[in-house]
Amino acid sequence: MWQRVWIWKRNFNGGKSRYYVRWYDRTGRMRSESAGPDRKRAERMRSEKEIEINSSEHDELREISFEGFKEEELRIMGGQLAAKSVLDLEQTLRIFRDMMDVKMLSDVSPGVVENYVAERLANVGRATVNKNIRTLKASLSRAVKRGYLRKNPVSGVQQVREYEKEIRVLSTGEVEKLLEACLSEHWEAFISLAVTTGMRRGEMLALRWQDVDFNKGRIWVRNTPDHRTKSGKNRVLPLTAETSDLMRQLPRNGPMVFHTSSGKPWHNNLQRSFHRIVKRAGIDYCSIHDLRRTFISHLAMAGVNAAVVKELAGHASIQTTQKYYTRILPESLQSAAEKLPFGQVIGSRSICTESAHRSKKADSKEKDKIVNLALFVG
Q1: What is the pLDDT of residue 373?
Q2: CATH classification of 66-145 is 1.10.150, yes or no?
Q3: In what order do the strands lie in the sheet with 212-213?
């Protein structure tokens, strides 16, 4: 049955009036939206609202529990997202369910999401919270498409402001100290590969001998059943002669380039071993991912085009390259400032200013002597 929407006019003291659009929802409850003092605007709102509430989009929603939706999400998206993204999705939905104690998916409202953000901020960093918001927004958008929700309750929730962190970029001397502190040829090759190719930790751990071409000096970063690249794309990277020499010396106890003495692949949890190397090298704290940042930042300092850096880094967009990785070391900023043409002009002014300052200071001392003499004579 077609549901009617009408306009109601309310008069105020002083001759002012305001129009409202009114209708009954499916529960029989009257709803109202203000259209302001403009009658024509109220007519447009009435027409649009009448079409909206009678459209197919306002058919009865499909009821589903939050847990049921979570299981459906993981089943459907499991084959579409990378393994790490599926893990993030499961963790985000599970934590949201437990913190907010939601039983039905329809219980999720903008207010519930905002409370979740506030409570989450008390326990984790802002970057993590923003990642959770993005994951929830994407997931509940799919819930709208499946007919579980009319609107995405996260669509109007703003991400929190993140404080910019200083990106750690190693100097040439620090990289040299790291390599000297390595106690195994595998670690030496691993660090060299990171700073000369910018490969991610997972990409290096998934590197197979068949992906390395020593003759042509190339490395293929490929999607495999056991490892998906972050961008979902394959790419080819140049292999420097020095890194190639280090990798040639590695033993081949299996298909993987980096493995333990027994031939088993290295695990993801390598930070502890790497931190020992950093401590032995006597340099400031850095992580394995900082080696990738070092590679890309030094390319930027060398004047390599950002589009080329993007392809080498395997970024999905140029904005990522520009926002996070094209940071320049202080000495580069200093050398850039020294190229400005104003040095000689400012320098001459500096000399004149210093000379004038000395002259004024001398005059001031002479005046003090005259005053003191007058006081003495008086």
Answers
A1: 46
A2: yes
A3: 212-213, 218-221, 235-238
How many whole angstroms separate alpha carbon 55 and alpha carbon 47? 12
* Burial tier of 236 (Cβ tally within 10 Å: 0-12, 13-18, 19+): middle
**Which is more confident, 73 or 315?**
73
Read off the pLDDT of residues 159-210 as tens digits, 9 standing for 90 and up.
888 877 777 889 999 999 999 999 889 999 999 999 999 999 989 998 999 9
Query: Which of 12-26, 32-46, 210-224 is least confident?
Result: 12-26
Note whether 283 and 170 are within 8 A (CB): yes
CATH superfamily of 172-331: Intergrase catalytic core (1.10.443.10)
| pLDDT at residue 309 tops 90 | no
Do the strands 218-221 and 6-11 form a parallel or antiparallel pair, or are they unpaired? unpaired
Q: Rounded to whole angstroms, how far apart are CA atoms 68 and 239? A: 48
Q: What SS3 string covers 200-216?
A: CHHHHHCCEHHHEECCC
pTM of the model: 0.58
Domain definitions of the chain by residue range: 6-58, 66-145, 172-331, 344-378
Residues 6 or more apart whose CB falls under 8 angstroms from that of 258 comprise 186, 189, 190, 204, 205, 207, 265, 266
Cβ neighbours of 291 (radius 10 Å): 28
d(CA 273, CA 251): 20
Tell me the CA distances in angstroms from 112 to 119, 120, 150, 331, one per residue in order.
Answer: 11, 12, 16, 48
Angle between helices 126-145 and 66-77 (to 10 degrees): 90
Least Cα distance to 100 among 88, 115, 89 occurs for 115
Q: 206-251, pLDDT tens digit by residue?
A: 899 999 999 999 999 988 777 777 777 788 999 999 999 999 999 8
Q: How many residues does the chain have?
A: 378
Place of tokens 């509940």: 140
Least confident range of 2-16, 331-345, 359-373:
359-373
